[in-house]
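Example record for the data management plan.
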Amino acid sequence: MHIDEVKSQFPIFSKKINGKQLVYLDSSNSAQKPTSVIKSLDNFYKNEFSNIGRSIHSLSVNATNKFEETRMSVKKFINASSKDEIIFTKNATEAINLVATTFGQKHIEKGDEILITELEHHSNYIPWHYLRKNKGAVIKFAPINDDGDILIDKFKELITSKTKIIALTHLSNVTGTIVPIKEIIEIAKKKNIPVLVDGCQSAPHLKIDVKDLDCDFYAISCHKIYGPTGVGVLYAKKEWLESLPPYIGGGGMISEVKKDKVTYAPLPEKYEAGTMPTAEVVAFNESIKFMQSIGIENIIKHENELTSYALEKMKKINSVNIVGNPKNKAGVISFTIKGIHPHDISTIVDEEGVAIRAGHHCCQILHERLNLPASARASIGIYNTKEDIDILCKAIENCRKVFDIK
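Corresponding structural encoding:
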């Protein structure tokens, strides 16, 4: 499929920003939505709305079936063994909190160690911090080098007999580092240590095969995969979901309730208490279909070519510093311009219709490690083109002129 055909499926690109054609380079934050996803949401609320799993009337049965169709699509998308290993949450943050809370409740005691890395988004640090605060756990940070790569030898050295779980990102939302997850999981398996993978950035841009990775948990954020907000996915091996306690209690996750006894529903309902975001889950199926219509191999090829093009052009601009230089990199390009605050960079390029992010990107520990208060970030999606990169570079040059940076 030609990139122009892909881009035409996203209504927002007909919009002007400050009188200029929109150049959206903030997909690591949240991706734009194709027409098929938007239409699915609209149609469900107009013609198909009902709660799921409770009533037996036609609307409810239809909604439940569509909800479960998405579960099956997710199973195939990440190559899980069973649909029962797919849990819908409100976002990836909740998915990680679910694991931290339930795993921590059952398996973490005072002095037990949790191993994460200096690359982590706050969503894969704060949930573990709660265990440190409430149960006396110890968090260890595997170090990175200046390029943004994890130091594997140092990582191994941090594993001890007290290491209870390893949690780490698959793809950094600052440096674009593609972490050697499979190698790390193999190291962990030799010590019988479970591994949680934060797949927020990787799921839209890499081929995900949880069976091949052999990870225990994998968290996904649907709004980054061209889907609706308000939906996340937790993949977990069935044995973990069966052995861990429920996360939150309420309707839908119970089997039988008595005054003196409660039994829980089988998987996956055990972890899906209360009214679910039904329309959004149903629409997420369209996001998966959209990705599959293009093909993940084609997406990877397109984004790799665009990333290489962007890096080549941006490195030629005086005073621009690219954050990190990892061995394997995806389409996340954080940068600074000497003498210009990242917030000012973002404001000025926005005048040219270019949307980028500025700040610490919910990665304060990583920015501190790299001696940066903040950075600007351009992140690539399937709808971006070389023309978008050219416009970004022209806007960056304009920043330099505004601030008289040589």
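Summary line stored alongside the record: The CA atoms of residues 242 and 393 lie 51 Å apart.
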